[in-house]
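REQUEST FORM: STRUCTURE PREDICTION
Request ID: SP-0412
Submitted by: Lab K.M.
Chain count: 1
Length (residues): 471
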Amino acid sequence: MIKRFKQFYSISKAKPLRTDLDKQGQHKYHRSLALQSFVAGTLGYSLYYVCRTSLNVMKKPILDSGMLDATQLGIIGSALLFAYAIGKLVNGFIADHCNIKRFMATGLLVSTLANLTMGIVGIFGSNNEFVGEAMIPSAVTFIIFAVMWGINGWSQSMGAAPAIIALSRWFPLSRRGTFYGFFSASHNIGEWLSFIFVGAIVAASGWQWGFFGAAIAGTIGIVIILFMMHDTPESKGLPSIEELSNEKPSEHAAASAKEAQRLALRTPAVWILALASAFMYISRYSLNSWGILFLQEEKGFPLESATFIISINALLGIVGTVLAGWMSDVLFKGDRKGPALVSGIMLSASYILFIYGGNAYWINIASMVLFGIAIGVLIAFLGGLMAVDIVPRKATGAALGIVGCASYIAAGIQDVVSGWLIDNNITETINELGETVKHYDFSQAAIFWIGASVVSFLLPLLNWRHKVQEE
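STATUS: Completed
RESULT:
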């Protein structure tokens, strides 16, 4: 059984070179398969994100229902992030040795089932027109949600590494930044789809049904991955990407995947980037996790308006990631440090504008435009590409695992700390109907969020003179 399991997920065996293809035919066939793999990785990971961020859209309705409080939601959110953090490290190392199509599809299948389960539990654990009084105690619902969201976090960690390994296996180094930038837009596409698609379902039918919407998106992603992603050029009867693109072999070209991974672990610059990404992810996830609630409580926006405003950052992030990869390849010859610094400063400025810029609709939209572009660049650079650039190709998953583990541990800590800071700054008043109304104060949480964004752009300065790995 274990042997079959390993065989199923192991890298596809190389097939004999296709004799029916000349050099031109090889390049044409390779371009077709590479593009399919890129599209599958990008769209598939976008739909991964819908399954990951669906809960963020539902926080206010869940709080209003009284079933869970902010601290419990923070713990549930952190369950995903902590599991995701450990999974990023473990699955990043594993993915370097795996059939990436099967590995990525499996993760999305588990994530889809987790969302489906939470939707069912949500229906039976709350008062609604289908079941009347809740049939599952709120304490039990909280435990089930935390466990399922933790399982979702682990399965989510099986998405990014295979998609980015596909870029390393199918694209030359000279074009990796460009396609990595396009791929990184999948984060923002997924967040935008979650805010718009899941948000619309929640607004129309109730928060429980948002999980079912996410499950539908996950099912579509599984189909795309299975039909369009390909493991390696060699498994299709083609030469390796190094041979196809006439790349010069590096000093580490002959190293095994394990040796390359050990080299990545011993590179201080990778760990500095991991720490910088960790602080950037505090800023990123604090806005995605609590931004809608902040706009509703602090600025009085209705759910539809708050969801739309926050969704803008996800949409504009696409512009940031696409331009980041292309410009760094073409204009900066693969050097990402300068654009990353400028984007980090822009991120802090946009957060300050969002928190302290007032209630005007256009100001909040402008802050999300700046935030989206900045975070899009930083997700591409700090979130992986700068680390991938300084390690051998065979350690792509390992570098992503190190950075991802640090990033999502920090994101998980953020969810717990933010929930605690918000819960401990609640004031209660009595309205004209004699009902107790809670008012949430975000002032302390805001300082935490903005401070993290400043640290995130200062840390990479320590790597300013570090050279990019040449392969």
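NOTES: The chain is about 75% helix and 0% strand.
Reviewed by: T.R.
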